[in-house]
Amino acid sequence: MIHNQYNVIGVMSGTSLDGVDLAYITFNYKENHWTFDIIVAETIPYSNQWVTSLKEAIHSNREEIEEIDKEYTIFLGEIINHFIQKNNIHHLDLVCSHGHTILHRPDLGYTYQIGNRSILADIINTKVVCDFRVQDVLLGGQGAPLVPIGDRLLFENYNACLNLGGFANVSYENNLGFRIAYDICPVNVLLNAQANKLELKYDNGGELARSGKVNESLLTALNNIEFYKQLPPKSLGIEFVMSELNPAISSYSLSVEDYLATLTEHIAMQIAAGIKIRDQATILVTGGGAFNTYLLERMSFYATNYKFEVPNALIVNFKEAIVFALLGVLKIRDEVNVLSSVTGAQYDHSSGVIHETFDPVY
Questions:
Q1: pLDDT value at position 161?
Q2: Neighbours of 107 (CB within 10 A)
């Protein structure tokens, strides 16, 4: 039965490995318009062991990945159960989980997010909607970005939505009224890796980058990478960082501050060049990078016609969890939750797998 109100938990784990984001949200649908209220939200940091396992999983064989998938699904179930109990959540229609991306090669026809097994529904004793990317890749799409449908339905007051997570991605309506979206460049996967050298999780506010000096030679090498010349739809995964950026970065010997200054400049330049809105625009900025004051300053320096607006901290931190919760709601309503204009798939579709008990429903 189609309802007009849904109480949902959205679960998201991104490539920056900050942890698992959980958000308990109420969605309301009235007069062809979606609104939402975040009741409670929390990020559960990964242990050092899980960070290492998730980072190294890309090098694992299929059997090893299957085992990690089982362990991670149980881990997610335990986290979700604790979140439900801790916050005394009784009215829950479904849990919508992104899982964690281990492999993403849409050019080769596959993408793999662990944590999407049917046992998750049994552990939390609640209907689960998950595994949103695979179907799109099978339909010839990039499997990403999937957030733009949420940008259109929940954040229509902005000209564009920019997420600064492990990677930067943007979405907006083009002149023909189609939503387009694409990945622009790596962000926190690069910056955090440098901060980690100083045993820091991240460069707080970009202050280390601010104190460093840009290496023009490395900056030029990074800006000349072929991906940045490609037209959307296009998406990025950790494989791109390992094959394209890390070799260029490791060929230099710089201080952490100089690396951060150079990488921040590279990111700011690519974001300014990558957003193709001609007129003045107000752009919603979310993701962990929204708290990087120095990065936002450099973005504004290169993109003078854009106003980058950072919303309240709950939306900044949990926007992707919010949107994946909405994707799950749209799936159980059998409504479009993936846009072909964004991913390049053959047609718009309703993606994801529904786990009621033991068997998935497609």
A1: 97
A2: 11
The DSSP code sequence of 218-229 is: HHHHHHT-GGGG
> Alpha-carbon distance 205 to 77, whole Å?
33
Cα 244 to Cα 185, 239, 248, 275, distances in angstroms: 11, 8, 7, 22
pTM: 0.84
Taking every pair of Cα atoms in the chain, the longest distance, rounded to a whole number of angstroms, is: 61
Count of helices and strands (H, E) across the chain: 14, 14
C-alpha span between 53 and 166 (Å, rounded)? 17
Q: Which residue has the tokens 């979206």?
A: 181
Please tell me the distance from the alpha carbon of residue 219 to that of residue 215, in angstroms, as a whole number.
Answer: 6
Residues of the chain with pLDDT under 50: none
The token pair that represents 12 in the structure block: 């998201």
Distance CA 159, CA 174 (A): 10
Cα angle for residues 157, 293, 214 (degrees, 5° grid) = 125
Residue 307, token pair as written in the block:
């106003």
Amino acid at 347: Y
Residue 157, burial from CB neighbour count under 10 angstroms (0-12, 13-18, 19+): exposed
Tell me what pLDDT residue 358 has.
55
Rounded to 5 degrees, φ, ψ at 82 are -65, -40
- Find all residues with CB under 8 Å of 75, minimum gap 6, and list them: 50, 115
pLDDT for position 87: 98
Within the chain, residue ranges assigned H as helices are: 48-56, 62-86, 119-124, 134-138, 148-154, 188-196, 207-211, 216-223, 238-240, 246-250, 256-274, 293-302, 313-332, 340-343
Q: Which residues contact 69 (CB under 8 A, 6 or more apart)?
A: 114, 115, 117
3-state DSSP helix/strand/coil percent for the chain, to nearest 5? 45, 25, 30
Dihedral pair phi/psi, residue 358, rounded to 5° = -100, -30
